[in-house]
Design goal:
Belongs to the acyl-CoA dehydrogenase family. Keywords: FAD, Flavoprotein, Oxidoreductase, Transit peptide. It comes from Promicromonospora iranensis. The chain is about 50% helix and about 15% strand. It has 3 domains: about 120 residues, Acyl-CoA dehydrogenase/oxidase, N-terminal domain (Butyryl-Coa Dehydrogenase, subunit A, domain 1); about 120 residues, Butyryl-CoA Dehydrogenase, subunit A, domain 2 (Beta Barrel); about 140 residues, Butyryl-CoA Dehydrogenase, subunit A, domain 3, CATH 1.20.140.10. It has about 400 residues and is an alpha+beta fold. About 50% of the residues are buried. The radius of gyration is 22 Å and the shape is globular. Strands 2-3-7-6 form a 4-stranded antiparallel sheet, with helices on one face.
Length: about 400
């Protein structure tokens, strides 16, 4: 039986394979995440023991082809992260950082040797990656990053191919304190035709064990507590010449990865909203006031109806984007529309669901307020409401309002 929030029988639009993927991940969430998430959230603990289990389920880089990745469809990936986020946004974030950001960067922009070396190990969870783009002073405007990389040629004897030296800082980098590698984006001065140099953003695979690399978890946090976000310092970090991601230089490189993560958020936020709605509905049927379950009161029913309508619309948007992505027709402004709408309605639904629970809703016995807290982060990362609004404004008017 589908969720009461599925007012239009959207489940009937899903194939048997898609439904099977959803049920497999839903069972995992019910068994491994729901019984523990309140404690993990309260203790600000990310359960690293889940990482190899994600690998066994084929969740890490599941939408990528080859190199030990599952190669599943965009819709199947969306359904999987939706179920993970119904458990908790912080848990889903690990899968997004690993697969849609770090692995995607290597898959899209790496050399064949880099892909062969890292992707199979990352797909199983043996190796963990993070994605260093955001900086203390460069969030919504990554073009203003100050992290730099310079190349130092090797010796004339030919026994060294040279090294890249990285200096700078990154902030809000998920999993950096226990990752094995970091995808670091930095500006490089490159020669221009006709003389002179220009800065261009390039990506590097940086072992977190490298001298001068430091990652410190950001604490305390009021959101995403069952996840880890870090400050990174790069102080003369040296990596070999082949650490450079050779393909697609410029900001188009990280942006292509961000689009993958944003696509996952379109689905994931629906999972958080649905879980909060179902918690409120279940509570409303059992909680009695004035001699009747509060689900029987008009104002409560109005809240539940509004939540179900928005979840149904958000699910349709996610499915539409998934079908477009599988057909190779998904465009950037479409992802912005999905991220903006679904993150915005999800946090509203979770807050409203908390009101149905009354005072009990502020405890970790119930999920809505935890989801709402997490969604403050989800609504902010991978593009704020304001940035996605301006992306859509540019698409509609043809005029860029960023500067």
């Amino acid at each position: 039986m589908g969720s009461p929030a599925d007012l239009l029988d959207i489940d009937s639009e899903l194939s048997d394979a898609e439904l099977a993927t959803r049920e497999k991940v839903r069972e995992f969430v019910d068994r491994r995440i729901r019984p523990n998430i309140a404690r993990w959230f309260a203790d600000a603990h990310f359960p690293r023991e889940l990482v190899p289990e994600f690998g066994e389920l084929g969740l890490l880089g599941m939408h990528l082809d080859g190199y030990g990745c599952a190669g599943r469809s965009a819709v199947e990936y969306g359904l999987a992260v939706q179920e993970l986020e119904a458990g908790d946004s912080g848990i889903r974030t690990f899968v997004s950082v690993q697969g849609s950001l770090a692995m995607s960067a290597i898959h899209k922009h790496g050399s064949e040797e880099q892909k062969q070396r890292w992707l199979p190990r990352m797909a199983t969870g043996e190796a963990v990656g993070c994605f260093g783009l955001t900086e203390p002073g460069a969030g919504s405007d990554p073009a203003s990053m100050t992290t730099r990389a310079r190349f130092e040629p090797g010796s004339e004897s030919g026994d060294s191919g040279g090294e890249w030296v990285l200096d700078g800082a990154k902030r809000w980098i998920g999993m950096a304190s226990f990752a094995d590698i970091a995808i670091i984006w930095a500006k490089v001065a490159e020669p221009q035709e006709g003389g002179g140099e220009r800065d261009r953003v390039r990506g590097f695979i940086v072992p977190t064990s490298a001298l001068g690399f430091t990652a410190v978890p950001i604490e305390p946090k009021l959101s995403m507590r069952a996840s880890v976000q870090c400050d990174i310092t790069l102080d003369g970090v040296r990596v070999p010449a082949d650490a450079l991601l050779p393909e697609h230089p410029g900001l188009a490189g990280p942006f292509a990865c961000l689009d993958e993560a944003r696509y996952g958020i379109v689905w994931g936020t629906v999972g958080a909203a649905r879980d909060a709605f179902e918690a409120a509905l279940s509570y409303a049927k059992e909680r009695e006031q004035f001699g009747t379950p509060i689900a029987g009161f008009q104002l409560t029913q109005a809240k539940l109806v509004d939540m179900a309508l928005e979840i149904t619309k958000a699910q349709l948007m996610a499915l539409r984007l998934g079908r477009l992505k599988d057909a190779g027709r998904l465009e950037g402004h479409m992802i912005s529309a999905g991220k903006l709408n679904n993150a915005r309605i999800a946090i509203t639904i979770c807050r409203e669901a908390r009101t149905v629970l009354g005072g009990n809703g502020i405890t970790l016995d119930h999920s809505p307020m935890r989801h709402a807290s997490n969604l403050e982060s989800v609504r902010t990362y991978e593009g704020t409401d304001e940035v996605h609004t301006l992306v859509l404004g540019r698409h509609i008017t043809g005029l860029a309002a960023f500067r």
